[in-house]
Every structure is written in C-alpha cells, then in structure tokens.
Amino acid sequence: MPDPRHSIPPAYGGVEPDAAWVEEIKRLAEARNATILAHNYQIPAIQDIADHTGDSLALSRIAAETDADEIIFCGVHFMAETAKILSPEKRVLIPDERAGCSLADSITADDLRAWKADYPDAVVVSYVNTTAEVKGLTDICCTSSNAVDVVRSIDPDRDVLFLPDQFLGAHVKRETGRDNIHIWAGECHVHAGINGSELTEQTEAHPEAELFIHPECGCATSALYLAGEGIVPEDRVKILSTGGMIDAARQSKSGQVLVATEVGMLHQLRQAAPEIDFRAVNEKAACPYMKMITPAALLRCLTEGRDEVFVAPDVAERARRSVERMIAIGNPGSGE
Ligand code: SF4
Questions:
Q1: Are residues 185 and 318 in the same domain?
Q2: CA 218 / ligand 1 centre spacing (Å)
Q3: Would 41 be classed as within a structural domain?
Q4: Over the stretch 34-78, which tens digit does the pLDDT of each residue have?
Q5: Which of 45, 141, 170, 265 has its CB surrounded by the most CB atoms within 10 Å?
Q6: Which atom of ligand 1 is nearest to the CA of 191?
Q7: 7 in a domain, yes or no?
Q8: Total count of domains within the chain
Q9: pLDDT for 138-164, tens place per residue?
C-alpha cells in the first residue's frame, strides 16, 4: 500500500512507442549528440531504445566516460543526480524530474542535520538511494553489496548513523554485531509489499524454483533480510546484482526462477534466457516513479531539452567524496 505522503503525479502520456517514435527519438538524440541511459526498471520500450541499460552506478560510470554532450538519464531523480555528481561538466537531463523515490524521500537534509546534532561524533553511512543534499552530509555512501564492509571499516568505538533503509540497516546490524549503529526508519513505500508471507507462499508454491534477489532495490532489501532470517531455504536463494542475475539466468538449469525485485527486470531476464519461466515474487512490485519515464516524456525531453538536473557545486563536491569513499570499499556492486 503506497504511503499517502508519496502521491504519484500523472505521467506524460498520449505517445505510442511505434516505429515512427523510434525513428524520431534516434534522430533527435543524434542531432543533440545525446546518449540515452535506461535503468533496468524502465518500461521495455525505453530499455530497448536506450544506448545502455543497467543499474544506477553502472549507468553513472558510463555517463562519466561518454563523449556525448548530453546524458539523457531514464530513471529516477536521485540517480540522475548521481550521474551529475560524478560528471559535473556534462549536461544531464531526466525526461520527467517528478520521478522521485519514496526511499530517498524518507529522509531530508534537514532531518539528517537534526539527527547528526544528536550524535555529533557519529559516522554517517547512507545507502545510495538518497538525494544529493543528503549525500553531501554523508561520510560514506554504500550500496547493499558493500554496506556490511563499509560499516566494518569504521572504528568500532564510534557511533554509526545508517540511513535511510531500515531493512538494509537491520541486515548490517545483524552481520556486524554492532550495537552502536542507529538506523533511520525509512523504506521503499512502493514495495513494502514484498514481505515474509508472500516470499514463503511463493517458494512453497514453487518448490523447485530458484530465487533471485537483487539487493539494491528498496523492495528487495526486505527480501534480503528475510532470506538471512532463514524464512527461505538458503541453497535456493541467490543474492545477485543485475549483471549477476543475467549471468546466472544464462547458466541456470532451473526451469523456473522467482525474482524478488522490480518487475522491469523480467524483460532483461526473459531476453537472456527465454527457456526459463521467470516469475515475479510480487507482480505489483512495479515502481510507479520509474514508469513516469514514458515515450511521451522522452520525446518531450529530446525536443525541449528538459528537465535539466542541477546540483549546487559545493553540494556536488561533498557528495562526490562520499560516493568515492563508497566505491573504494569492498565490492560496491552497481547500485539499485
Ligand atoms: S523501487 Fe522504491 S527504492 Fe527503487 S526507485 Fe522506486 S521508490 Fe525508490
């Protein structure tokens, strides 16, 4: 049930992703010398037209390396901000700047300032699903692939403020055994739907199926926590990055795989291994913010050059340091 604080604005509509649209998008992108990057949770038409599809950090790295003049980031706003933080000299556009993230929105910069004031000597660790301003107030960012390593790298005598995802925080607390870790009570409200009973029900109904969990999504951090609790048999659970999920799909001998992540990922998996029956643990786990990047929004973006993503240079500088520290610790994976 979406949190009422997170109402979803109506997306730009009225454009079909037909052959004429494909041709026009390609023509406009070439004329602008723009590269189109699409997150894995985008609708299939956007994934298919993009120059690159992937996770947020993988896309940000591609953005930093491209020689295109413009980066069209088809994903949610904090991801486009991360691309801008890592490539401040490039023009970054998002087809609809209202595409937010309920997890990133669960803590504001003011919330974090107030929290830090209560623990002035604490080290702040933030999951990448945060705004640029929050990253700018963070000591070390983390992905769920390296969250445990990041916290282990911190002096055991210092308090840690971990935000914003409470499931990932609980997982890190259990793994590190630290009792001086304070966890912000945030979550992905959209996907709070993947819960223990649903996972148990699905794994019982499909006893031969493997279970792929992508740990970087707000919806999957609860699955990660539950798998650690032993609710799902360990030998059938694979915690995988998106790239790892595609490799595992190609190698899998299973006829059926349950996938605990946003349903957009199924498009890539079915293309990689058409003989496997991939099923979503929760069919409703579709991020409506991601789905705001419609064919109409992308056309508007390339026609009007909107919406441009701005991050104040001082905020970007501080945020970049926290992201670079993250990349240096353990295996950060590639973000949500
Ligand atoms: S799925 Fe949840 S965590 Fe991921 S972008 Fe959407 S709202 Fe944010």
A1: yes
A2: 6
A3: yes
A4: 999 999 899 999 999 999 998 877 888 888 889 999 999 999 999
A5: 141
A6: 2
A7: no
A8: 3
A9: 999 998 778 889 999 999 999 999 999
